[in-house]
Give the backbone structure.
Amino acid sequence: MIVIVANALPDAVRGKLKLWFVEPKPNVFVSGIKDSLADRVVDLVMKYTPESSGLLVFKSTSKPPFYRIYAHGSPAKTLDIITGFQLILEKWDRQPPQKF
C-alpha cells in the first residue's frame, strides 16, 4: 500500500497519480499497487514535485517496521528518526487539562 499526502501538487502530477490511485481528499492519494510500481511512482513524484508542495509518502515494505516514509519540501508535519523508526512529530501543548 502507498499513501501520498501533499499541501499542493502540480496538475500534471495529480493527473498521473489518478491512473493508479484513489483521491479521497484533495492532494491525498491511496493505492494498493505492487512494490515495483510503487518504487517508480515514488521516484516520479519526488522528481516532478516542487519543494513547495510539502510532500509525505507512506509506503509499505516487507521488512520491519513494515513501512517507509519519504518527505520532500516542507510538509506540515515533521519527519524524525528515533532509534531507527521513522515517525511523524505532532505539536504537543504541555498545558494541563482544563477542569470544568
Notes: The mean pLDDT is 87.
